[in-house]
Amino acid sequence: MQTDYINDFQALAQNFNLNRASGTIEIDGHKPFELLTCPFTSTADFVYPSSGDYSSKGNTFTALLKYYLSTNQYSNELIFNALENSDRNVAENNHFRIPVFKPAGNRRFSRAVFLMHGLNEKHWEKYLPWAQRIMEETDSPVILFPIAFHMNRAPESWGSPREMMKVAAERKRFVPKGAETSFLNAALSHRIQFAPHRFFSSGMQTYYDIISFIDEIRLGSHPFLERSCRFDFFSYSIGASLTEVLMTSNHNDYFSDSNAFLFCGGAALDTAAPVSKTIIDDAAYTELFSWFASLFESVTEMSRRVKEIFFQDLPEVMNFKSFLFYDRMQSFRESALRRTGGKIRELGLEKDSVFPPTATSKTLNGLNGDIAIETESLDFPFDYRHEDPFPLQPEIRTEVNRGFEEVFSRACGYLNNFA
User: Fold this and answer.
1) What are the pLDDT digits (tens) for 86-104?
2) 95-103 and 109-116: which strand pairing?
3) How is the chain split into domains, by residue range?
């Protein structure tokens, strides 16, 4: 299918509206389709500490944080809410709408594709041409499921350049020079550095939310899908990591027949390099991985509730832990990947410095290279980054169109092999 990526991006962005329950979208060169927005309420707030997000750090830490916030107005008001509002009480994260791209008509579909996004994303526009292409090529609904505290599950101020520039200015006075702090990563970096358990908790909340959403489908609550609907995945960046946890855990056999196409993701997280002005700064990332390492050695700085979850032998928790470090729980992780039966394929980009192809293939193919997961990498004849694989630059639109075609013809071809 020949399309123009930039034109499609702009037209879809203009027509995308999360505030309507449903609507028909028509853009040049494509058949009309429906945008549904399914209301959802998360019941997985149990993954967050009931005593507060910073309680495990102790009184001295809390006092120092309060002092810092007393002299940094915007960080206090926009990110930390004067320490008065726990993550489990953030309304935007608990009550939200799930966008779905659906072929037009009144059919009930026997398959749907989850599109899983990357870390520190606040806006859906980047993914709209991706969702449209997958929907058209697979003739299936595409569910754009937001990760906890991302996209439309985050307070609007976190995605506002004007507001976040104020927060970033305060954060730059706090962290060392050269830490890659920017208005784009200030919210996530602040939140992770002061409470690194949030990475685990938000990942687990998203996992349980997806399971709950499928529970709803099995009960017939979403009539555009058959109750026995099969779920496939197109998963990018950190969304690929979450997909690995879903596929290897296979709750209630929900994913026994699923297939996953991973794009620029899937490596053990310690082999990734997400520090950048658009994702997370160095100070926060260092704190996050110090916390991850401590989980395998000490539990002194962990709230009771996070301890209770992290040290249960639940499949989803064990699988989550196994993808943190390449050299830890390696045999457990590789056994879990083998059980997926070759139903995962990964495509990387040669110039991706966040999830390098060498790192993803090393994780997915296993120590001895004997796991039946196909990994491949491409390169494009234009400048791109992990965060922006298809740049919106008119002077290279022909090359970008070809690159987009190369990726999504592979992805849709793979997913259609199992239709």
Assistant:
1) 898 899 999 999 999 999 9
2) unpaired
3) 5-57+87-155+189-416
The answer to whether 384 and 390 have CB atoms below 8 angstroms apart is yes
pLDDT tens digits along 337-363: 999 978 999 999 999 999 999 999 999
Cα 177–Cα 282–Cα 156 angle in degrees, nearest 5: 100
5-57+87-155+189-416 homologous superfamily: Alpha/Beta hydrolase fold, catalytic domain (3.40.50.1820)
- For residue 125, what are the CA distances in angstroms to 6, 8, 152, 407? 11, 11, 12, 18
**What is the C-alpha to C-alpha distance for residues 228 and 72, in angstroms, rounded to an integer?**
52
For tokens 């685990």, name the residue: 200
The tokens for 308 are 């209770």
**pTM for the whole structure:** 0.94
Q: Is 297 exposed, middle or buried (0-12, 13-18, 19+ CB in 10 A)?
A: exposed
The Cα-based distances of 417 to 134, 138, 345, 356 in angstroms read 14, 10, 12, 27
